[in-house]
Specification:
The complex is a heterodimer of chains A (about 400) and B (about 500). Chain A has about 400 residues and is α+β, with helices and mostly antiparallel strands. In chain A, about 35% of the residues lie in helices and about 20% in strands. Chain A has an eight-stranded antiparallel β-sheet with strand order 15-12-14-13-17-18-16-19, sandwiched between helices. In chain A, helix 11 runs antiparallel to helix 12. Chain A is globular and about 75 Å long. Chain B has about 500 residues and is an alpha+beta fold. In chain B, about 35% of the residues lie in helices and about 20% in strands. Chain B is built from 18 helices and 18 strands. Chain B has a seven-stranded antiparallel β-sheet, with helices on both faces. In chain B, helix 1 packs antiparallel against helix 3 and helix 9 runs antiparallel to helix 14. Classes of the chains: A alpha+beta (about 400), B alpha+beta (about 500).
């Protein structure tokens, strides 16, 4: 029996979509977590290699495999609990649909990941791709109460739950978040929500990178607490010069007070220009979507006082056309076109500065060569390898975690 | 080196000096409990290393001999998690108490595991910074212990539990190998092993260097005390506050039994003795006008949801007094009875009113006194059962009531522990929460870090409830990790016990 026939027999005719795949790989869309478990259990028995796909809009769907497993039919929202500020969501739902459903219930997921609007939640969690809101609300893991994932041999593993604090057992949620699918397919996510902000204001300032870096330092020194504080390259912001965008979200009193503090900290008067709601939405959305259209995207985690030095390094080694930096937390996202050799050289330079580079998206040949994480620190490799063997004993998942270095 | 206990003791003394090895029974008995009085284990030997190099040497020695060991901080934990049996070595980390670095520009600190929680905030204060996790035991508990338990505290409602604040770790694994996890920025070099390590209750190794995030000390603070005539009304007010979109820094609740215990103690805070419950709320931020406006809004919500009165602390002194009553409530409850069982379940916040009533009903049915003091904003309950363990049959009744309370919390969509950890105390509840696959996955992960399961054996994962896990890297070694099967021929010789 062929692979396609086998899967059809397992999950039904409508679970397999052969025609839609660009590389001839059958794409399988299980309709439930149990179906995912059944499929992966069979994959283990048959020795099939599998790539995980969400909406297919972030990581290129080009890893060489026997079948593609897409979570696109896992798009239900079992629970939104406004009174608890928590939600339970299947991982295949698009972020845009989720955002709308949450807003309808007066709630908000304070994450603004890069990528197209319909990018799946599971993709955001699996790759831990936070956006500018990381400044005020933390990274992806800070929004997770728990996850359920399916291992490479078809076991459903639940971790965490839907309550605000939970230390029962080891925190496997942390392993799933940012694991790039190496440990399992995330099928269900329990989210920590916030109340929809009563006020949401973005202000922008154009200038040279050096000028804006100084303004950023002034903001930090004045203990202004923005929700987002982002330095964008001209191409990304679609402006003539670099753009500093500062966003406040919360109660009307808070936003008003923070805006006043921002102006006081940065020379007062009208240096920053407030954006209308539609302008602000367009700015943040365009920036997020731009990274989904660049051939390569990576993030680096530096310290606030090294932001300038790291931007110089990027400019020197790979260019600085598409950059979004959070100077308040030291994180930088880069997008553009580059080579395997340059990426390797850059990663080595950054490692010398104790700064990790995580490759977020690139074509399979680049991912396979460079890896999402590259080489580990001494002693960590065997731990990661052990964890991978634990959750994917037959190496069913094709994920370029380390690369070929 | 043989496995003889005397040789082991001599070898340990060779590493840390004889005066930092405790072998006499009276000395070891002082380590037989943690903050939870219901579990007691006397360790075989206690060793107190004074540096990371000594920790590494100890762990390597124990690895070579196949001896189990238990890392321990200040011993303030509430799960029996830092107790060691007679065949194990207790590694007490309180001498590793140096703050290695505070970096005000980047808001981070690097500390050794034995640094007392509140000391870090005190050291960072001149730079306008603080370490946010603030367990009630923060004047005694250590950062290393906080990492092991993923400790919480009142102000975690707004700022997150320990895991939110740990950026990087230096860890000594069970075999003595040293690994660096995480980075100063918090962006991991690979999968998030820092996140996995935090809260692993000592099962994955010993953290010898901890890098944490510091936060700016809030410039504006408002502390409010609201009192209610009914527990249910107070619970409903919690949901109303949360739904308002304003996130308090802390939102704590105490019931009448707890209020009276506090007011009868030296920690009397001025809580109204006739209240069925009080809520203690704190709002903070960088902007005075915003915090003042938010406090006004919250006071209005509390009044609208049945508060008899809402008092705003007039000054820092009153604020401190209100908080002292809350933070010393566990101590004050020692007045109620000789023994105390402390629970730590978490429920969805909207379930608080129903669950509190259920707890009261269970307490009534068993004829027990239950006092509630807890992190209401997180739904993290601490129902405390006061009893006299000398009364025949009473402890068994307390255990049964505890089980019913836990089952009620799980049925409400909750979990068995929010910040105290599983340790020994909650092992029996783990199968109520996790199926065999999830438990087996946890065990398999533990064996990646500690293949022989020698570090803090017998804690967190109930081995009997694990389904077979063929993916484990050590599956071929069978199922040898049941506590009784941990390999160790080590026993402290009787003569050593008597010295």
């Amino acid at each position: 029996m062929s692979l396609v026939d086998r899967v059809r027999a397992l999950l039904g005719d409508d679970a397999v979509d052969v025609a839609a795949t660009h590389d001839g790989v059958p794409r399988v869309a299980p309709a439930s977590p149990d179906a995912v478990a059944l499929l992966l259990g069979t994959a283990r028995e048959e020795g099939w290699h599998v790539r995980i796909e969400g909406a297919g809009s972030w990581l290129p769907t080009d890893a060489p495999v026997d079948l593609a497993l897409t979570t696109r039919r896992l798009d239900h929202v079992p629970a939104i609990e406004p009174q608890d500020l928590a939600a339970t969501v299947e991982a295949g739902i698009g972020c845009d649909l989720l955002r709308q459903q949450l807003a309808d219930r007066g709630t908000w997921l304070a994450l603004d990941p890069p990528g197209l609007a319909g990018r799946s939640l599971g993709s955001v969690v699996a790759t831990a791709t936070a956006g500018p809101l990381r400044q005020g609300f933390g990274s992806v893991r800070d929004h997770l109460l728990g996850v359920t994932f399916v291992t490479g041999d078809g076991r459903l593993v639940q971790s965490g739950g839907r309550v605000m604090k939970n230390v029962a057992g080891y925190d496997l949620t942390k392993l799933a978040a940012g694991g790039f699918g190496a440990f399992g397919v995330i099928v269900l996510v329990h989210l920590r929500l916030r109340a929809l902000p009563r006020a949401d204001q973005t202000l922008v300032l154009e200038g040279s990178r050096e000028e804006l870096a100084q303004v950023s330092e002034d903001i930090a020194a004045a203990a202004v607490q923005p929700a987002a504080h982002e330095l964008m390259s001209p191409a990304l912001a679609r402006r003539e010069r670099w753009l500093l965008a500062v966003r406040f979200a919360g109660s009307a009193a808070l936003v008003s007070a923070e805006e006043t503090a921002l102006r006081a900290a940065t020379g007062g008067g009208g240096r920053f220009t407030p954006l209308r709601a539609d302008e602000a939405h367009a700015l943040w959305m365009r920036a997020a979507e731009s990274f989904a259209t660049r051939p390569v995207t990576f993030r680096i985690g530096g310290l606030p006082d090294s932001s300038d030095e790291l931007l110089d390094l990027l400019q020197h080694q790979v260019g600085d056309e598409w950059i979004s930096a959070s100077p308040g937390v030291g994180a930088i996202r880069w997008g553009g076109e580059t080579t395997v050799d340059r990426l390797r050289r850059l990663r080595r330079s950054l490692a010398g500065l104790e700064v990790p580079l995580t490759l977020e998206r690139a074509s399979w040949p680049v991912r396979a060569a460079v890896g999402h994480f590259g080489a580990y620190r001494e002693g960590v490799g065997p731990l990661v390898a052990g964890l991978r063997r634990t959750f994917d004993p037959a190496e069913a998942f094709v994920v370029a975690v380390e690369g070929a270095e | 080196m043989t496995r003889d206990g005397r040789s082991l003791i001599a070898a340990l003394a060779g590493i840390v000096g004889a005066r930092h090895v405790r072998t006499a029974l009276p000395e070891r008995i002082t380590y037989a409990r943690d903050g939870l009085p219901t579990h007691r284990r006397v360790p075989g030997v206690v060793v107190l290393p004074g540096s990371r190099d000594e920790v590494i040497a100890i762990v390597r020695l124990l690895a070579a001999l196949g001896v189990p060991f238990v890392p321990r901080g200040a011993g303030t934990g509430l799960s029996g998690g830092a107790l060691a049996d007679a065949d194990a070595v207790l590694v007490v980390l309180t001498r590793l108490n140096r703050i290695l670095r505070i970096d005000p520009r980047n808001h981070l600190a690097v500390v050794e595991p034995g640094v007392v929680n509140v000391r870090l905030s005190a050291a960072a204060a001149p730079d306008g910074l603080l370490y946010s996790p603030d367990p009630s035991s923060q004047t005694a508990c250590t950062i290393g212990g906080n990492v092991a338990e993923n400790a919480g505290g009142p102000h975690c409602l707004k700022y997150g539990v320990t895991a939110t604040h740990v950026l990087a770790l230096e860890v000594v694994l069970a075999d003595g190998q040293v690994v660096e996890l995480g980075s100063l920025s918090g962006e991991p070099w690979g999968p998030d092993l820092v996140g996995l390590f935090v809260g692993s209750e000592g099962n994955f190794g010993i953290a010898t260097r901890i890098t944490v995030r510091l936060l700016p000390i809030p410039r504006a603070v408002r502390t409010l005390l609201a009192d209610f005539a009914a527990l249910r009304t107070a619970g409903e007010a919690v949901s109303a506050v949360i739904a308002s979109g304003i996130v308090p820094a802390a939102l704590e609740m105490m019931d009448q039994s707890c209020i009276r215990a506090v007011e009868d103690s030296v920690y009397a805070a001025g809580y109204p003795r006739d209240a069925a419950a009080v809520l203690l709320l704190e709002l903070d931020g960088a902007q005075e006008s915003a915090v003042a406006a938010d406090a006004e809004t919250i006071a209005g919500i509390l009044h609208a949801h049945g508060a008899r009165s809402v008092t705003v602390a007039a000054d820092a002194k009153q604020r401190e007094r209100l908080w002292q009553g809350r933070k010393k409530a566990f101590g004050a409850m020692g007045r109620l009875s000789r023994d105390l069982v402390v629970q730590d379940a978490v429920v969805p916040r909207s379930a608080l009113p129903d669950v509190l009533e259920t707890i009261a009903r269970i307490a009534g049915a068993y004829g027990l006194t239950v006092s509630n003091v807890f992190h209401a904003g997180d739904g993290n309950l601490h129902p405390n059962i006061s009893f006299d363990g000398r009364v025949p049959g009473l402890k068994a009744r307390v255990d049964e009531a505890s089980g019913e309370i836990m089952a009620a919390c799980i049925a409400a969509g909750g979990t068995i522990t929010g910040e105290h950890g599983v340790g020994l105390d909650k092992l029996r509840y783990m199968p109520l929460l996790f199926d065999g696959d999830a438990l087996a996955a946890m065990r398999a992960v533990r064996r990646v870090f500690d293949p022989e399961e020698r570090v803090n054996p017998g804690k967190v994962v109930p081995v009997h409830a694990c389904r077979e896990w063929v993916g484990s890297v050590n599956a071929e070694r069978g199922t040898r990790n049941a506590r009784a099967d941990v390999r160790s021929d080590f026993r402290v010789p009787t003569s050593a016990l008597e010295t």
